[in-house]
Fold this protein.
Amino acid sequence: MMTNGTGRAGTVRRGAGALAAVLATTLLVGCGPAGTDSGAGSASPSASPKQALLAAVPDGSEGAFRFSGKDATSDLSGVVDPDAKGIDLTAVVKDPEHGFTTRMSFLVVQERIWMKVKFTGTEGLTGLPKLPNRWMELDRSRLTDPDATPTYEGVDVGNAGPIIQAATTVEEKADRTYAGVVDLTAAEAAKAVGEEEVAALGDAARQVPFTAVVGADGNLTSLTLDVPAAGTAKAWTYVVKYADYGSAPKLAAPGGDAAQPAPKVAYQMLNG
């Protein structure tokens, strides 16, 4: 899902860079490339609870849907549209030192990408970049690290599949609820949750409890990991939610006055 980017917004560049890193390396892009089989599919009548839960993970056949999620440091939300090979995602992060909030959104359709940034609670602050209140189309060739912005890499943007694959026990409860234990030291699960965070857990990373809920339509609606405290780090919760399968808005390139080429200051912010 989301890595624990620790960018302190003492400077706008540092704060924006942390947001971009969060969006690019976590919940918002998924662990596997588009079309990768994460284990999802139709579960057979004799499927184990783990197989049944993996079958509920979105695989691209459900149409556009909404997602949301959070980890120890950020909250993310948006839309996935497999037909458009698109994602629309937003992160909202409050700077703990200066108190202002940054809302950063990315829209990806096919190979094209746009960004929108809004700052609030900035009274008395100076030095913030002046950005248009429109979608700014980015040229990836002008980015110092093209991978620092998201690309469409599949529909399971919350990395539910890799996490469930790493489950060592899965038990089906009532009302389409599942519970079990995940070994986060498994490579793909560690990438999904954050390798640094997993390493900090030590042996506790092998026994992280989770719960999951599957909707009446057979699609995954939520996955929650209860990550324990470790050392000086507090306990935190990793959450993925999927909703509105097939009824979320379709994604398309913004047109007319809704978009413009990104100005130089946008690249300075991302490349900072």
